[in-house]
Design brief:
Blueprint (H helix, E strand, L loop, with lengths): L2 E7 L6 H14 L4 E5 L13 E2 L6 H8 L3 H13 L2 H8 L6 E5 L5 H4 L3 H11 L2 E10 L6 H18 L3 E6 L1 H4 L17 H24 L3 H10 L6 H14 L4 E3 L5 H14 L12 H8 L1
Parallel strand pairs: 1-4, 1-5, 2-3, 2-4, 5-6, 6-7
Helix pairs in contact: 2-3, 10-11
Bound molecules: guanosine-5'-triphosphate and magnesium ion (MG).
The site of guanosine-5'-triphosphate (GTP) has 15 residues, from α1 and α8.
């Protein structure tokens, strides 16, 4: 069936490992044969034990201890070491010809934006016949500060341009900004106009408004957000803000899919977007329904 994988990237603490664990349990529950591949030499704990783990090749701790590197230099050293030992990775991945792989990557964004390391790893995966989908995670906290949000959009765009693979951006930790995003109850039938129901409706309206506001950030129209950014920066930077916003507008290719890990529909929606990007499942032979098979046996 061809080889498929997700490369889960994003800034430190953006929820990559949690995303991977969420995808692992979702895929397992839907009978997809899935494995976790860890590319973070500094990782300490996983909810699912990785099947392939860079720490079997090299760990950040050893590099820092033996070569006296700091954490960031050490991490780059580890990944360059991986690049010099790609036959190790190829062999480790060799046993999973038809399975679905999820790669958990480190949180140093320079790996995606200007170091050629991740790009080289992507090229190798493609050479080994993997259809690779880049999944760039940005956490919902980024939308609370517009300047931070723009820098997040630029980093996502930079990764997209640098890696040149099918790519989706995910806004993680949506449960923190909107308790039940995308899961709002419909108005109950026959709801009377008493005090408690009025309160309930007011609550719903407040949430709907928030949802609408949030949507501005999923499919950004930066020209609409520029005033907010300018109000937080000195006039000296307004021309620069305008130029950055114009750049984002000109590329018009950064959009985010919200993910609330507490909502199964939301997880499913993100996964179906990834599947779509790499055409996962299009070449699966339709299976005979179990009921039909039993009927035939009789
Ligand atoms: N509420 C909430 N917390 C989350 C979510 N995803 C991650 N977190 C928390 O955010 C923190 C960082 O999550 P990780 O999944 O370790 O993030 P990461 O991107 O793998 O971090 P690094 O590997 O260190 O770059 C942890 O404390 C998580 O519990 C989420 O969807 N909702
Ligand atoms: Mg992690």
């Amino acid at each position: 069936m061809g080889r498929h994988c997700q490369l889960v990237m994003g800034p430190a603490g953006s929820g990559k490992s949690t995303f991977c664990a969420t995808m692992m349990s979702h895929c397992q529950a839907t009978n997809r044969k899935v494995h976790l591949v860890n590319l973070d030499p500094a990782a300490e704990h996983f909810e699912y034990e990785p099947t392939v783990d860079i720490r079997d090749l090299i760990t950040l701790e050893d590099v820092m201890e033996e070569l006296d590197y700091g954490p960031n230099g050490g991490l780059i050293y580890c990944l360059e070491f991986l690049l010099n030992n790609l036959d190790w990775l190829e062999e480790e991945l060799g046993d999973y010809e038809d399975d679905y792989l999820i790669f958990d990557c480190p949180g140093q964004i320079e790996l995606y934006t200007h170091f050629p390391i991740m790009r080289r790893i992507c090229e190798c995966l493609q050479r080994w016949n993997f259809a690779v989908c880049g999944v760039y995670c940005l956490e919902s906290q980024f939308i609370e500060d517009k300047s931070k949000y723009f820098s997040g959009v630029l980093s996502a765009m930079s990764a997209m341009v640098n890696l040149e693979i099918p790519h989706i951006n995910v806004m993680t930790k949506m449960d923190l900004v909107e308790g039940d995003y995308g899961n709002q109850p419909a108005e109950e039938e026959g709801e009377g106009d008493n005090k408690s129901n009025r309160k309930k409706r007011a609550g719903r309206n407040a949430r709907t408004k928030t949802k609408k506001e949030l949507e501005r950030y999923f499919d950004p129209d930066p020209l609409l957000l520029i005033d907010d950014v300018n109000s937080n920066t000195s006039p000296r930077f307004h021309a620069l803000n305008q130029a950055i916003v114009q750049l984002i507008e000109d590329y018009s290719m950064v959009s985010f899919i919200p993910l609330n890990i507490r909502d199964e529909d939301s997880i499913n929606y993100v996964l179906s977007n990834i599947d779509n990007a790499i055409q996962y499942g299009e070449d699966i032979e339709p299976k005979e329904p179990e009921a039909m098979a039993e009927y035939d046996e009789e």
